[in-house]
Amino acid sequence: MARTVSLDSSPASACDAWRGASRDEAQRAAHGTSIDRYYDQTWLDYRFVWLSGRHLAFHFGHYGDHVRTHAQALANANRVLAQRARVRPGERVLDAGCGVGGSAFWLAHECDAAVIGVTRVASQVAQARNLAAGQTPRHQPIFLQADYTVPPFRSSTFDVVWALESLCHAPDKAAFYREAARVLRPGGRLVLAEYMLTGEPRDGTARRMVTEWLDGWAMPNLATPGQHREYARAAGFDALHFEDATPTVERSLRRLYRIATLTYPLALTARGLRLRSAVQHGNVIAAIRQYQALRRGYWVYGIFCAVR
Questions:
Q1: pLDDT score recorded for residue 138
Q2: Secondary structure (DSSP) of the chain
Q3: What is the pTM of this model?
Q4: Which of 190, 172, 170, 165 has its CA nearest to residue 180?
Q5: Nearest to 8 by CA among 273, 199, 191
Q6: In a 10 Å sphere around its CB, with 0-12 CB exposed, 13-18 middle and 19+ buried, how is residue 289 labelled?
Q7: Residue 70 pLDDT > 50
């Protein structure tokens, strides 16, 4: 079961979302390109190592009572967030950072929600649209190529904004909260699951470990739970609620770590032979570093909910 903790238990560091949230347009464009490159080059890694049958999940799984297998845990991650956000039939949901549509399809089938998924990665939009052709929910998900920190929607359009391990890719976390508040109707809900630092990494070992993790997964920075609270409040959100869900997700995080550790010698050889790119190799290193950093207490897996 997830632990409910104070939003102030992980204090915001002096810096605003470690490694900086303020970037000019050129830096934003460069970071956007790195995200495209990351997902384009690591698709096969996800496809063969992580995705499970019909669960098109780029996220970690949530284990618990009656949730024992990897596939069950991946589906349960969607169920947990849907329960936190109280998603109801017919509601409009913005899936911010939708990947190839895993959560959008789940929400459409299991919650009868009307979902619009946005991702800046063109190849993901194409894959999601192809997959949608074979789906038959009452509300067919729609997929668009867009930046969820500047979504192309009118104000008060959605009942729920959903971000499942996607805000990590946004250089400016505060901008996401401002835009989420804008596109939500009054009383609308925000739910996100994210990697959250327990503080600024202060020694060299911590900084190197976290840097290799962030760089390998194309994440420009991470925030603490306290910083997420500050961004949400500044954007006008209320009824803020944070859960440390690390206990239910730890098994999934450890699963990826073990896969990466076991395959690292092969990955290193493939990199040396130039059969795998630097991006692909960085993905493997990051899979190792994320769990090492978790075990050292550098971050937690948080679920954050708020009401507009």
A1: 83
A2: -PEE--TTSSPPPSSSSBT-S---HHHHHHHHHHHHHHHHHHHHHHHHHT-BTTB--SS----BTTB-SHHHHHHHHHHHHHHHHT--TT-EEEEET-TTSHHHHHHHHHH--EEEEEES-HHHHHHHHHHHTT---SS--EEEE--TTS----TT-EEEEEEES-GGG-S-HHHHHHHHHHHEEEEEEEEEEEEEESS---SHHHHHHHHHHHHHTT---B--HHHHHHHHHHHT-EEEEEEE-HHHHHHHHHHHHHHHHHHHHHHHHHHHTTSS-HHHHHHHHHHHHHHHHHHTTSEEEEEEEEE-
A3: 0.89
A4: 190
A5: 199
A6: buried
A7: yes
Mean pLDDT value across the chain: 90
Query: Tokens in use for 308?
Result: 């507009």
Tokens of 229: 């609270």
Range of the domain at 29: 3-307
Are 159 and 189 in contact by the 8 Å Cβ rule? The answer is yes
- Asked if residue 195 lies in contact with residue 283, where contact means CB atoms within 8 angstroms, the answer is no
Mean pLDDT of 234-241: 97
- Tell me if 176 sits within 8 A of 163, measured CB to CB: yes
Go through 151-182 and write b for each residue having 16 or more CB atoms within 10 A of its CB, e for each that does not.
Answer: bebeeebbbbbbbbbbbbbbbbbbbbbbbbbb
For the chain, the domain total comes to 1
- Provide the CATH number for the domain around residue 182: 3.40.50.150
Instruction: Please give the Cα distance from 225 to 10 (Å, whole number).
Output: 6
Single-letter code of the amino acid located at 295: R
